[in-house]
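Shipment paperwork, digital attachment
Item: protein structure file
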Amino acid sequence: MKQARRLAPRAIYNQPVQTAQSSAIIQAENLTKVYRSGRIEVPAVRGVSFSVERGEFIAIVGPSGSGKSTLFYLLGGLTRATSGRVVIDGVDFGSLDDAARTRLRKQRIGFVFQRFNLLPTLTAMGNIEIAYDISGQKQPLDHAYLDHLSDMLSIKGRLDHRPSELSGGEQQRIAIARALITRPAIILADEPTGNLDTKNSDAVLAMLRRSNKELGQTVLMITHNLEAAAIADRILQVRDGQIISNTATAYAAPGAPGSAPIVPPAVAGDGASL
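Attachment content:
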C-alpha cells in the first residue's frame, strides 16, 4: 500500500502550518445561526456560503440587525454555527474542541472589536504585551515593529497610560495595535472606525490596508460605513442574514478573485451563495 504523501510545512508568522490545497483562507459553507428563546427562533444568519482568498481585504456591510456581527463571531470561532461550517486555513472550526479552537484563534486570527476590551488595570503597553504573551509566540516581542505601529496609529506617547486615561479614539487604536502585534494571518475587525473622528479613521484604515499589502494579512472588516468599506477589495452586503451582493472595488487587482463586479439579485428563501 502506498504511503500517503505528506505536505511540506510552511511558516506563517512563526507558526508552522500545513500547506492547504485551497487558496481560500476562510470558507463559509451553508452557514446558519439561529438564536432561541423558549419556543421563539430568530435566524441571524441564513444559509450563507462564500470564501475569502489569501491576502484579500473584504468588507462586510449591512444595517443594524442584518446579521453581519453574528457572521463575524462565526468566522472567528467565537460562537458555534447552528448548521453549516467555517473552515479557517483548511481547518474546520466545528471539528475542534474548545481548547483547539482557542489555539487556532491565537495563532491565526487578530481581533479588533467594536468595544475596545482593554484590561483596565494595565497600561496600553501592558495590554499589548499580554496579548503577545498569550498568543504563544516563540520570538520576543518585536519592539521596532511596535514602534512602527505606534507611529502609524499615533499612540507612541500614550503607551504608559491606562485605558481610563485615554480617549475613546486612543483606546480603539491601542486595541488595533494589540491585534496587529502578533502579525496574524487573518485580521477580523468589527467596526474598527466606529468611535474615531475622520482623521483617526483614515489612519486606522490606512494601517489595515498597509498590513494587508505589506504583511500579506487577510483582512475581513465589518462596518455599516460604505465610505470605510470602499478601501476593501470586495464589499459583501448583508441583509436579513443573507449576502445580497458581492462587488469589487477600485482596489481589487485585475484578475484577482472578485475583480469583476458580481451583483446577484436578492435571493428568495433561506440561502445565499457566492
